[in-house]
Design brief:
Layout lengths: L2 E7 L6 H16 L4 E8 L7 E7 L2 H8 L2 H11 L8 E4 L13
Antiparallel strand pairs: 1-3, 1-4, 2-3
Helix pairs in contact: 1-3
């Protein structure tokens, strides 16, 4: 069973563009890691400048390796000065769901 990590980000006023750049850079680097199955980032349509990330890993130990990678450490250091709060994610296992009726994937 794969492992999932979800996190919500709220950049400080005026820092959303810089944060988006850091988030995208981290996502691209993370996607190349051997244990990464998927990594997607989102921007809220109802709360401007609120971002979310969802990553899927082969297992929790693969995520733990990711958490110590230089690009991850760099992202967390940069985020510290750009966000309204520290990065707090949710470690989780999928319990349901899949493509909906309108999905083409």
């Amino acid at each position: 069973m794969s492992f999932h990590f979800l996190v919500r980000f709220e950049p400080q006023p005026g820092k959303a563009t810089a944060f988006r750049t850091e988030l995208m850079r981290s996502m691209e680097a993370s996607r190349t890691e051997p244990g990464c199955l998927d990594f997607r980032v989102f921007e809220s349509v109802r709360e401007p400048y609120v971002f979310y990330a969802h990553s899927q890993w082969v297992d929790e130990p693969a995520f733990d390796v990711h958490a110590e990678q230089p690009h991850t450490r760099r992202f967390l250091d940069a985020a510290e000065g750009l966000l309204t709060h520290e990065v707090r994610g949710v470690r989780s296992n999928k319990i349901g769901g899949g493509p909906g009726a309108g999905s083409k994937s």
